[in-house]
Design goal:
- This protein is of the alpha/beta class and about 425 residues long.
- The protein folds into two domains: about 200 residues, 3-Layer(bba) Sandwich (FAD/NAD(P)-binding domain), CATH 3.50.50.60; about 200 residues, FAD/NAD(P)-binding domain.
- About 25% of the residues lie in helices and about 20% in strands.
- It has eight helices and 21 strands.
- Strands 1, 2, 5, 6, 7, 8 and 21 form a seven-stranded mixed beta sheet that branches. Strands 10-19-11-12-15 form a five-stranded parallel beta sheet.
- The longest helix has 25 residues.
- It starts with 10 loop residues before the first strand and ends with a helix.
Length: about 425
């Protein structure tokens, strides 16, 4: 890939903000349509995979789901789960194939509309204009750490999941991981396998089987049409965009995560975090509820697969019914960090987007962009690479190609109509 660092033009038919897998996919299809465009990437291709993940990070979806445009997974382990460095290599190889027009090390600081209707893009390398702007920056901008975290004494080390790398970076002592989404449970397991004493504040994230009735669950769900389910057909509607993903892991060949089993192995579980006063850590009395609801989703997925197997007369091994291997005696509501020898807290409660640089009225009360399949109410402004942009697969390697092809086609059509007008 030839990185273009100099520019001689100020106007493009399309500008793409972000040079990750989503932005590269859009560029791939824009090139196919012959649309003059430029990508602005503030870091370098693959930056977030390379620098914003812990050392043992791997995909939670199988490698066969890596289906970037005309660039499916090339390796010899389609049922495996790529490690961090392999993901970087995959994205970089895709970038080489696409060979996009791109300026790296260029941040976009402002997008606004001029009086003539043209979109203005102010960057660290100057100001440009475009007929169309595609935002491909993702929604993981600002790590979430609650305000009450400032109450902790300085001797208790705090780190957000985006900055966690491995157990050795944390001081000796026990560790509290706050959050049971995909990052939280995987970091908890990373610490537990390293022999660290771990505490986990369990939130409302659902969980999923890994292998069920002789087959990878994601393969069953793909056949059932879950990945093709569109947001307009989802029972929760737009609210699905804000739901936490199911937790499981691709570590060591992939396996499901049952927090009850970890409790039997010594991990101490609490409900969701409520507050902190000095060394006093407070939790909501919802541990039993959160474990039960995660298991309910887990069992429902199994039931969906059972019905599909029965309806299609598929020969598949039968598995015993799910049973709980551990139950909390009560829902703990507070502990003292010093008494528990907790010397570190890992915050794994997610991120919030930061779109303040987009000065156009396309955001809801939570600062989330409003769109229909990535197309906003503001003419010429689009989003891609976000969960439930169109389908369950939209925020994954599996669904980006369809979304990118669709948006590039929309842009091509609008440019053609403008030319004919």
């Amino acid at each position: 890939m030839k990185e273009k660092r100099e520019h001689t033009r100020l106007h493009y038919e399309a500008i793409v903000v972000g040079g990750g897998q989503a932005g590269l996919s859009v560029s791939y299809y824009l090139q196919k349509h012959g649309i003059d465009h430029m990508i602005f990437e503030k870091n370098r291709v693959g930056h977030s995979w390379r620098h914003d993940r812990w050392d043992s990070f791997c995909l939670v979806t199988p490698n066969w789901q890596c289906q970037l445009p005309d660039f499916p997974y090339q390796g010899d382990d389609p049922q495996g789960f790529m490690l961090k460095h392999e993901i970087v290599e995959y994205v970089e190889a895709f970038a080489k194939k696409v060979n996009p027009p791109i300026m790296v090390g260029v941040s976009v600081n402002r997008v606004w509309r001029g009086k003539n209707g043209v979109l203005h893009v102010v960057t660290s390398s100057g100001e440009f204009t475009a007929d169309h702007v595609v935002v491909a920056t993702g929604g993981y901008d600002i790590p979430i750490v609650p305000d009450y975290a400032h109450s902790l004494p300085p001797r208790i080390h705090q780190v957000h999941s985006v900055n966690y790398r491995n157990p050795d970076q944390l001081p000796e002592g026990e560790v509290l991981v706050v959050g049971s989404g995909q990052s939280g449970v995987q970091i908890m397991e990373d610490l537990h396998l390293a022999g660290r004493k771990v505490h986990l504040a369990v939130g409302s994230a659902p969980r999923s089987p890994r292998i069920y009735r002789g087959r990878e669950t994601t393969e069953w769900l793909y056949d059932l049409g879950f990945y093709q389910l569109t947001i307009d057909r989802h029972p929760l509607g737009d609210e699905a965009k804000h739901k936490t993903n199911h937790y499981l892991t691709g570590r060591s060949g992939g396996h499901e995560i049952d927090l009850r089993k970890f409790a039997l192995e010594g991990v101490k579980l609490y409900g969701s975090m409520a507050n902190i006063h000095g060394t006093q850590l407070e939790f909501r009395p919802d541990l039993t509820k959160n474990l039960d609801e995660a298991d309910e989703v887990y069992v429902n997925i199994r039931n969906d697969i059972d019905r599909y197997i029965a309806d299609n007369n598929i020969d598949a091994p039968v598995e015993p019914p799910f049973r709980k291997v551990w139950e909390p005696e009560f829902d703990p509501t507070g502990i003292d960090a010093d008494q528990e020898n907790i010397t570190s807290i890992v915050w794994a409660i997610g991120f919030r987007p930061d779109y303040r640089w987009i000065q156009l009225p396309v955001f809801d009360g939570r600062g989330y962009p409003q769109f229909d399949r990535g197309i906003t109410p503001e003419a010429g402004l689009y989003f891609i690479g976000l969960p439930w942009l169109h389908t369950w697969g939209s925020g994954r390697f599996l669904g980006i190609a369809d979304d990118a092809q669709y948006l590039a086609g929309i842009i091509e059509g609008k440019l053609a109509a403008k030319t004919m007008a």
